[in-house]
Design brief:
Strand content: 5-15%
Radius of gyration: 34 Å
Order of helices and strands: EEHHEEEEHHHHH
Shape: rod-shaped
Helix content: 55-70%
Length: 301
């Protein structure tokens, strides 16, 4: 499905292509004289955020990361979206997973109908960056809930939930860093020199927002890592305490075993004909047991 939206008194056009079929996309690019390499960029869901500029055809291609609305394996991931500027047209390539951004772009264009093509682009990148923040806040809320549960009881399920949060924030940290690097590259690119004051202001706004996103995702990631490390230390400490208790019990249980084994040998022994011999053997075991307990308590404390 292809939609064409003119703006700024029909001076510019925004063309959105929502296609999953490679052949149809290639036909569209051939019609507009766009390099076939861009086709691969547009359809590769693992493509990293970057920009390309073909000076011969005056084609500016930008791949930008945005959050995937659906959770995958109980965690959020990110997906790329392609923006192409050629002549007086902004072309966006979307699919079922990032199609929700189109409505955000329509809302922006409705409020800024007289915008230029690059101001529209940077405004959309600013809007996309803003889309990350609600998901990060959701992750932070989930982290607090999981932390409270872990304080009550460190269960496997709660630890797995914490691991899912860590996985999701890793995707967001990586995506936000890539987006920031991309925007910083724009400033060093030849295309930046052609921008007017308003376009550069919109670009700076998008750049500032991208930096804030990187800081926020890194902070959330560091908190999760510290939280995970804390509970890992707690589990190791609990394991050490358990092993210590089992070791002490095994040592203490050897005392009556040694005493009873001694008096159970098939040879002449002290107290062999004494009717109270078994009581004396038990008494000896108890005395040695308490003595050894006191020694272990001092050593372990």
């Amino acid at each position: 499905m292809i939609t064409k939206t003119p703006f700024n008194n029909h001076k510019y056009n925004w063309i959105n292509i929502n296609l999953e079929d490679v052949s149809e996309l290639e036909n569209f690019y051939e019609e507009y004289g766009i390099d076939n390499e861009v086709v691969a960029y547009s359809l590769d869901r693992n493509e990293r955020a970057h920009l390309d500029y073909d000076q011969a055809t005056n084609t500016f291609v930008l791949i930008f990361n945005l959050p995937n609305q659906e959770k995958i394996d109980n965690h959020y991931e990110t997906i790329p979206m392609t923006f192409i500027i050629k002549d007086m047209q902004l072309i966006t390539v979307t699919n079922t997973k990032n199609q929700y951004v189109v409505q955000k772009m329509k809302n922006y264009l409705a409020k800024n109908e007289s915008t230029t093509i690059f101001k529209f682009l940077f405004g959309c990148l600013f809007t996309i960056t803003d889309l990350f923040f609600p998901y990060i806040e959701e992750m932070n809320s989930e982290r607090k809930i999981i932390n409270d549960k872990l304080k009550e009881k460190t269960t496997k399920q709660n630890l797995l939930s914490l691991s899912d949060l860590e996985t999701g924030i890793v995707y967001f940290v990586s995506a936000s860093k890539q987006n920031l690097v991309l925007l910083e590259q724009v400033k060093t690119h030849i295309i930046y020199r052609t921008l007017d004051i308003n376009e550069k202001e919109q670009y700076e706004d998008a750049l500032i927002e991208a930096r804030q996103l990187v800081e926020m995702t890194q902070l959330s990631s560091q908190i999760l890592q510290q939280l995970s490390g804390t509970y890992n230390n707690i589990l190791n400490n609990n394991l050490n305490d358990t092993m210590k208790i089992l070791t002490v019990l095994s040592i203490l249980l050897t005392v009556p075993t040694i005493i009873t084994g001694f008096f159970g040998m098939n040879m002449p022994l002290p107290l062999e004909h004494n009717t109270l011999g078994w009581i004396i053997a038990i008494f000896i075991s108890v005395i040695l047991w308490f003595g050894l307990s006191a020694i272990l308590r001092k050593i372990l404390n």
